[in-house]
Amino acid sequence: MALETALTLTVVLGFTTLVLLLAGAPPLESYRQIVKGSLGSWGKVTHVIKVWIPLTLAACGLLYTFRIGLWNIGVEGQVMVGAVLTTYVLRTGSDGQHGQYLLAAALLAGMAGGALWAVMAGYLKTRGGVHEIFAGLGLNFVAQGLVLWLIFGPWKQPGIASMSGTETFAEHLWMPYLEGLRISPAALGMTLTSVVLTAYMLRATRFGLYLKAIGSNEKAAFLFGLRPQATMILAMVCAGGFAGLAGSFQVAGVYHRLIPAISSGYGYLALLVVMLSGFSVWVSPLVAFFFACLNVGSIQLPMVLQLDSSLSGVIQGTLVMAALAMHAMRARSRKGGGPDAGG
Amino acid sequence: MNVELIDIHKHFGSVRANSGIDLKILPGTIHGILGENGAGKSTLMKVLAGFIPKTRGTILLDGSEVGYSSPEGALRHGIGMLYQDPLDFPPLSVLENFMAGQVRGATMGTEVHRARLLELCTGLGFKLDPDVPAGRLTVGERQQLELARLLSSGARVLILDEPTTGISGLQKEVLFSALKSIARGGRSIVLVSHKLEDIEALCDEITVLREGIVTGTMERPFSTQALLSMMFGSEPSPAIRSGHEPGAQALYLDNVSAPGGRAGLAECTVHVSRGEVIGLAGLEGSGQEVFLRIAAGLIRPHRGRVHVGRRDMTGRGYHAFQSLGVAFQPASRLEEGLIRGLTVTEHCALGEGGGQFMVQWDTAEQDARDKIRKFQVAGTPDSPVESLSGGNQQRLLLAFLPEEPELLLLENPTRGLDLESVHWVWDHLDAHASRGAAIVFSSSELDEILMVADRVLVFFDGHIIKDERPEDTDALALGRAIAGKM
Amino acid sequence: MQGVDITILLAGIVAGAAPILLATLGETITEKAGIINLSLDGTIILSAMAAFAAAVTTGSLLAGFAAGAAVGASIAAAVALFSLRLGLSQVAVGFVLTLMTKDLAYFLGTSYARMEGPLAGPMPVPVLSKIPFLGPVLFSHSLPVTFSMVMILASWWYLYRTPSGLKIRCVGENPDGAYARGIDPDRVQLFYAVAGGLLVGVAGAAFSLCVKPGWGQPQGCEGSGWIALALVIFGGWHPVKAAVGAYLFSFLQVMSIYLQAWWPDVPAQVFQVAPFPLMIFILVLISVAQRETVMRAARNHPALRAIIQTLSGKAPAALGRQKKGTG
């Protein structure tokens, strides 16, 4: 296991270094910048946590769908729709009354929005026979179109619509944050709670057991009396709910408005997080933290080294590929190798 | 061509499908390979055809040893096989199926192949339209197509695995006369079948397999009696049945037909009474699987009605059947019965405490312990089910049956168990029957059926061709019926 | 349709469809052999970048297209090898590669952003381009666009009229059956995954060197890989029908430009995004229409039934199947 990890990291470092050399960048300095840019100061760390929150929430949701064997690629759109509904609710409260109730309602609306979007993909799969990848993808495009339409149409800023998003909310509609740290303790707390809740749901409840049973063997689970299709929809509801909450926090806690890139690709990235964590609830937040470090750390690459910040994505992708490959090789060698011909 | 197999072994993990088989096939003859399901016939033939590698042994062609490790290699030596499940390409046209594997290089030569296919078909008495998709052909026609293809690609030894299952009487005649004419032309044919009648009608020599070894060979004229005893073993156990008194109606299938398996199920009418134990005999795929699944609500018949107890359940789903006390146990343990990746405790938890939100892990683990003890499973509550041996998985499946079922539907409930365990299982099931549950089970062991059943139904090609009490019949008569010989 | 020149409109549709068409044809070939290469979206972006970079550096368009093709082929080879040799899920590997190659493109491409580069200009086909109407619509394009049209017929011919095409279809349908006929399914799958990947790579190059010339972030080809994947299903795994889908998508894209002019109130971004969900939902409609219940309902409407049957096509039976014995 230790050897496998070491090997994986060697492969990733080797590949990334190669890529850096190809781009004419100094590898060591680049790595140093990433570390410095993510963990170099408290300010940076809070920034990492801001990324960690939506990533972990989306990953929590995906644990439900992966457990039942669904590829919920629509998670990206679920984050967006969550953000849209949160914005909708918060826009009604410009008069300054009942800020906290409105915020609570906005978060609930976000969760409902994400869940709704996920259920649509779920029904397309169970009733329509459309593979969840394409159903989810189509809905992602629709969600992106919806966000853009709102920003440039009905919700455009007074005067001129722009890529900078809708008008910023009044400050009493922001989620309360710690002075200086710019992190909402409520969002952080709810994210940690989500992790614990997910672990609890998957481990201790019948629902969690059903997800695992259906994901492992749908036919046998059906014979045991379970209802695979209904359970799939329910798993989608959970996934969408957490993703929607991630979108809510992006709006109410981070940007205080709806912006075109509100989901920032965190949904897709969360899929990688869960895959790399080996579909584990407890490992996922750690991987999410590491990925958030990479994302935040590479933000200053363009300024310092004139490199694109997408280096983080290259490292993350390589890491997942290498880990998948190592895992498969270990499974192979344990089986005693040699592919069995035919039959 | 002279084919000689010497001391062929084939092991799949710990399962020995063939253990030391010798076989000689002379040119210009039709050689029958006879045996029950699981006797090792198909495995032996796949080894000969290069589809699977042998564990050890020697293959001699015309006296010289050959070592090939693929169907392509076998075909280069002139050995071609027609597999039990046709290995063809349903959406592709008949002509394309014919050409697949034969055409190389840059051009198709479609017209040349069309002419060759039609010529071969005319010579063998087949009528195939080259331009329809192969998926629209009947099983018999797909075989004809394969046969034509093998001949065209130069096969001098033709292996046919169960070619007469699922084809019409007329197609069988066409096939047999084609095979005879092929053999007359000097090629050898190996016919694998469990159907005595077919083998007797066609073959010049018969080799019988049982449990992976050769139990005998015979040349014309054949003695049916002797062949049957080579196939099934000679001493049927004495009947030691419990003899339950049949009670009220538990299951009533009224003129039910449904597709599925190789033969489907056709116009089946059966009454099952409470307390009755009914054994379903027949070769795999003869209709008993479909029968059990219809009775469980897993397959909806497209004709006829299904009653459970007094209630008409036609068209209802499996879960509705379950709520009436119907329990179904599939034969394939890890495909349908148990859930790979889940432990024994997790399986126990699945089956209990339906309405609760939380899993009662303590209860489930205690339950797992109890079941492991009661059903003598070699494992712990934390064992993932796939780590258990086949026999233990089978016991576990039994342990997961509901406490007080009304109707038990069991596919091969004792497969892979030793005799002592079989007795133990039946003692357990017997308790259900005494309580009034009806039990319907399929089994490939005639001795078992004769030992425990109150009634035997024999399935052949989707029909129930025999419905008798064990005391009115015996293993040999049942064996005949299974093989389609009344 | 005031002010719309139908010839220019059609020519625009044909030219705009070229890259997606090439990618769709490539993926159709790959999937016909039973491999799903889900990495198309990233592959197209990375090969667009590689093609542009190579063309700028060497000054040769040919080198650009070669680089794009090489990138497409290598990524496809990775998907196939991870599946065939390690037994990994093609969907998982393809998805990770989609994200990774996209980021790789943006990272490596920074220094080429917004540079002037070579551009594949119009190369009218002699004689044919002089035909009235058809000439300007079909035969007056740049080489990549003409190539894309030729590839429709070429891939159809290859799949349905050559021994190799027969081999591909056999393997995608039933690898065991192919094996029993002396065909090595693994080799065929690897080979045609790579061959399909080559075309996808050329598609990326066609974007950055021809249809949406230049490199930047975003390049403008984002999302087209997903559309190509959807079009393969739309075309029922048949190259000619898939081509019809590619032209339909291109039509939607061109129309969105016109519609934008007609409805200036609706934000432009909506029109840019709209063709994507529309295409996917056409796909959804087709999938739903193929359901048994709908087919039964359509029994009394021969016209409707005919439409559904033309649109539908079955996936190769062994598509995406994982190798046995590995997790």
Outline:
The complex is a heterotrimer of chains A (343), B (486) and C (327). Chain B is α/β, with parallel strands linked by helices and 486 residues long.
What descriptors fit this protein?
heterotrimer, B: 486 residues, alpha/beta, Rossmann fold, 6-stranded mixed β-sheet, C: ABC transporter involved in vitamin B12 uptake, BtuC, 15 helices, 71% helix
Distance between the termini of chain C: 57 Å
One letter per element, helices H and strands E, the order of chain C comes to HHHHHHHHHHHHHHH
Distance between the ends of chain A: 32 Å
Mean pLDDT of chain A: 89
Shape of chain A: globular
CA-based gyration radius of chain C: 20 Å
- Biggest chain pair contact, residues each? A-C, 57 and 54 residues
* Main β sheet profile of chain C: none
Helical proportion of chain C, percent range: over 70%
Per DSSP, the total helix count of chain C is 15
Textual characterization of the structure:
The complex is a heterotrimer of chains A (343), B (486) and C (327). Chain A is an all-alpha fold and 343 residues long. Chain A has a domain at 54-278. Helix content of chain A is 72%, strand content 0%. Chain A has 14 helices and no strands. Chain A has helices at residues 2-22, 27-39, 42-67, 75-91, 99-126, 132-152, 185-204, 206-216, 218-223, 228-255, 266-276, 283-297, 301-305, 311-334. In chain B, 34% of the residues lie in helices and 25% in strands. Chain B has 17 helices and 20 strands. Chain B is globular and about 70 Å long. Chain C is mostly helical and 327 residues long. Chain C has helices at residues 6-32, 40-58, 61-86, 90-109, 134-138, 143-161, 163-173, 175-180, 185-211, 224-234, 239-262, 268-273, 275-289, 292-297, 302-311. In chain C, helix 10 (224-234) crosses helix 11 (239-262). The chains are: A mainly alpha (343), B alpha/beta (486), C mainly alpha (327). Chains A and C meet through helix 6, helix 11 and helix 14 of A and helix 4, helix 10, helix 12 and helix 13 of C.
Write the layout of secondary structure elements.
The complex is a heterotrimer of chains A (343), B (486) and C (327).
Chain A: H1 2-22, H2 27-39, H3 42-67, H4 75-91, H5 99-126, H6 132-152, H7 185-204, H8 206-216, H9 218-223, H10 228-255, H11 266-276, H12 283-297, H13 301-305, H14 311-334
Chain B: E1 3-12, E2 15-25, E3 30-34, H1 41-48, E4 56-61, E5 64-65, H2 71-76, E6 79-82, H3 94-99, H4 110-124, H5 139-152, E7 157-161, H6 169-184, E8 188-193, H7 196-202, E9 205-210, E10 213-219, H8 224-232, E11 249-258, E12 265-273, E13 277-281, H9 288-295, E14 303-308, E15 311-312, H10 318-323, E16 326-329, H11 333-337, H12 344-350, H13 361-374, H14 390-399, E17 407-411, H15 419-435, E18 438-442, H16 446-452, E19 455-460, E20 463-468, H17 475-482
Parallel strand pairs in B: 3-8, 3-9, 6-7, 7-8, 13-18, 13-19, 16-17, 17-18
Antiparallel strand pairs in B: 1-2, 1-4, 4-5, 9-10, 11-12, 11-14, 14-15, 19-20
Helix pairs in contact in B: 4-5, 8-17, 12-13
Chain C: H1 6-32, H2 40-58, H3 61-86, H4 90-109, H5 134-138, H6 143-161, H7 163-173, H8 175-180, H9 185-211, H10 224-234, H11 239-262, H12 268-273, H13 275-289, H14 292-297, H15 302-311
Helix pairs in contact in C: 1-6, 1-9, 1-10, 1-11, 2-3, 2-4, 2-9, 2-10, 3-4, 3-9, 6-7, 7-9, 10-11, 10-13, 11-13
